[in-house]
Every structure is written in C-alpha cells, then in structure tokens.
Amino acid sequence: MSSVQIDSFLNFLRFEKRSSPHTILAYQNDLESLAAFLVVECALDKPEEATHLYIRSWIVKMMEDGIGPRSVNRKITAVRSFFKYLMRQGLVKINPLLRIQGPKSPSRLPVFVEEDKMEQLLTKVDFGEGYEAIMKKLIVELFYGTGMRLSELIHLKTNDVDFYQSSLKVLGKRNKERVIPIGKILQSQLSQFIELRKNAKAGKFDSYLFVHENGKKLSEMFVYSLINFYLGLVTTLDKKSPHVLRHTFATHMLNHGADLNAIKEILGHANLSATQIYTHNTIEKLKDIHRQAHPKA
Predict the structure, then answer these.
(1) Which of 136, 188, 249, 265 gets the highest tally of CB atoms within 10 A of its CB?
(2) pLDDT at 218
(3) Which residue, 187, 205, 181, is CA-closest to 267?
(4) Which of 14, 74, 169, 173 is catalytic?
C-alpha cells in the first residue's frame, strides 16, 4: 500500500465522492495504520499481497491494543472502501475484505437530555445580554429545535433562513441539501437575531449566519464548548455535545407522537434504521410509565 495509492484514493473521496474533511482525514489515518502494520509486521508493501489473513491479524492487533469494536469497524469500513477503489482501478484482482467480518459492537442507546432539563435551560438559565449572549442562546435553541448537526449549523448562511416557508435550508453529509421546518418561536428568535446582526459589526463581515461580533466565523470547538458548558448547568450526563441535542430533539419529537419517517427526513438520515434507534428510548419511557402506573407491574 504505497502512499501514492492512498493519496489517489483520498483524492477520489475528496473530488468525486465529495466526502467531508473529517472523513478524509479519518480514512487517511486508518489506511496509513494498516500500511504500517503490513510493512512492519508482515513485510508487505503491495496491496495485492494483503490477503484476508493479514487483515484479520491487523484486526486482532487492534483489539489487543484496546481499540473498541466501533472504532475497529470504522477502520474496516475505510479499508473496505480503499480495496473497492483498487479493484475498480485494476490494481488488485482479489478483495481481501470480502472474507472479513468486523467485531460485534455492543448496542448503545442515544444519550439525551430530559424535557424538564431543557425547559430549565431555555427558560431559567441567564445567558446574559448583548450580541454574543443572544447568539449563544439561539445556537442552543437551534440545535434543540431542529436536530441539525454541528457542521450544518456552522455553515448556515443568512439566506438559508426562509421566513415565508418557516424553514431552514442546510447542507448535510455528502453535500445533500435538505429543508428543516422551524416553529414560530424559533422563527421569531432568528428574525430578531438577524436584525441585531445587521446593526452589529458582524453584519458587515460575512454571509454566515453565526459569526462573532468582530465578524470572525465560529469554530467547531467554540460551539462544542458552549454547548458543553450550558448543558453542564442542567444535566450530569457524561456527554454534553451538540450531537446530544440532536438525540434530544429526535427523542422528544418521537415521545410526542411524531412520525418516524418525518424525523428521518428532518435529521437527514440515509435510511430508516438510523432513526429507529430512538424508538428504544421511547420504549424505555413506556416501561417506566407502566412500572409506575400498573398495579401488577
């Protein structure tokens, strides 16, 4: 597995598949890890020499090093895509990944914040005054009110807000656009913020909806840190991230009777199975209600 082949594959992801920078970096690290293993442990430097036995040895080595099943499976996915690419290019004749199965991952329910805790955060917590404070609260409201991803929020433009249709246009994974409905309260908050933004220095600098008052674009770390801080005021969850608010949005929608397919479309999931994980949280809630209310429970 030469660096030339890896670079060629990464360019394929970048320019033809239009994969995100995060995906490309992760795939690069995974492929370089396998390449190093094949050279050092197996004395191989050509991909056509890598049989399924060598790939299995790599997987065993990762498990012995304490890498969890989810991470191992993600690395296998990267290598599987790489060898499919090599097959299409005619660089290998046999795909060793056809005989590889990843380790089973333990099922984990999505982590979410309870409704009363979100109510407390949005009505009781003092975010302060001024442009930055109002922006921070709106970011929390937007994550909880739409279920959008961190990258989607950061790249929102002011013209992505459609007040006539009461919706937002976001650019999701694989550069797929989707439209997310917004309620009257969130629509009013967005309208007020955009007016505030026009009057602040921020409105003169950038087309992005969320920028600092000096016009600088928000970083992912900034948004992650602010969500972590404000969720920490109302919950003791270990995970306090924008993705937790995405889970919270979906779980609360489902608890209030939203159609699973509608949630799938709002979240931008490629298939329904990705959305069905939230039904487990709802079932657990029903079990709790049953245990508390039924005389024979």
Answers:
(1) 249
(2) 93
(3) 181
(4) 173
Q: In whole angstroms, what is the distance from residue 237 CA to residue 121 CA?
A: 14
Number of Cβ within a 10 Å radius of residue 249: 23
For residue range 153-200, list pLDDT tens digits in order. 999 999 999 999 999 999 988 888 999 999 999 999 999 999 888 877
Output 129-138 pairs: Cβ under 8 A, ≥24 positions apart: 131/196, 131/197, 131/200, 131/202, 131/213, 132/212, 132/213, 134/192, 134/193, 134/196, 135/193, 135/210, 136/226, 136/230, 138/189, 138/190, 138/193
The conformational region for residue 215 under phi > 0 = left, psi -120 to 50 = alpha, else beta, is: left
Catalytic residue among 117, 169, 243, 280: 243
Radius of gyration of the chain, Cα coordinates, nearest whole angstrom = 23
246 part of the active site: yes
Tell whether the model's pLDDT for residue 280 goes beyond 60: yes
